[in-house]
Amino acid sequence: YTEAWDADKKSIHVMPDTPDILLAKANAANISNKLYVQAWEEAKKKGYDMRADAIPIKTAKASRDIASDYKYKETHEKEKGHYIGCPSAKEDPKLAWAARAMALQNERLYKKGYNDSKTQIHIPADALSVQAAKECQALVSDVDYRQYLHQWTCLPDQNDVIHARQAYDLQSDNVYKSDLEWLRGIGWLTEGSVDVVKAKKAQELLNDRLYRTRPEQLKFTSITDSPDVVLAKTNAMQLSDV
């Protein structure tokens, strides 16, 4: 059965100029690490000429001198002993500037003007903000908010009083549960309740022993000359390697 296919497999030949072969070669060249670094390797083999007066060398030296801490502080070190003295600290501009900055940053001097003018403020009693604050205080005051009404005197046979009593009785928890007082102390068995019956029915539905019958309990004898058995034997003979 497979002899013709095995012979055909050996006779297949793929042309080297097919699109798939050309695409595979191009992909191999693109992902090749050797071709990727070929130009760099050839440039390294040629060598290089690094002179002391080359522009990159001079640029690197200038950058190093600029970034050097010694070169950065060289001018300051030279000018250390050349400052001109002043008769007093107030006449020195740098010391005067430092004192001025310290005075501006001092919290006591910063708040001195506010503390001096804080006790000199006089607010009139009829100012608009004061009146608004008084009205707001009266609105949020608990004393003015709670004004107890006088005691009403109602007749017991008035319709609204009777209606109120009926409403109170309906809303009362004692009256609401009074019909259940006779059940207090009575025992109750869960057998026959809805939840128990539902659990039993669910157990019967999920019981594998009641749901299906095992094959060994069935009395069944297969017929040897039935069409499906004969067909199965024929297929087995055709598929047999022997």
From TrEMBL:
Entry keywords, A to Z: Actin-binding, Repeat
A Pfam family the protein falls into: Nebulin
GO cellular component, one term: Z disc
Domain of life according to the entry: Eukaryota
GO biological process: cardiac muscle thin filament assembly
Alphabetized SMART domains for the sequence: NEBU
Keyword flag DNA damage: no
Repeat recorded as keyword: yes
PROSITE patterns to which the protein is assigned, alphabetical: NEBULIN
GO molecular function terms noted in the UniProt entry: actin filament binding
InterPro entries: NEBU/NEBL, Nebulin-like, Nebulin_repeat
Protein's UniProt name: NEBU protein
Native source organism of the sequence: Toxostoma redivivum (California thrasher)
Lineage: Eukaryota, Metazoa, Chordata, Craniata, Vertebrata
Gene name linked to the record: Neb_3
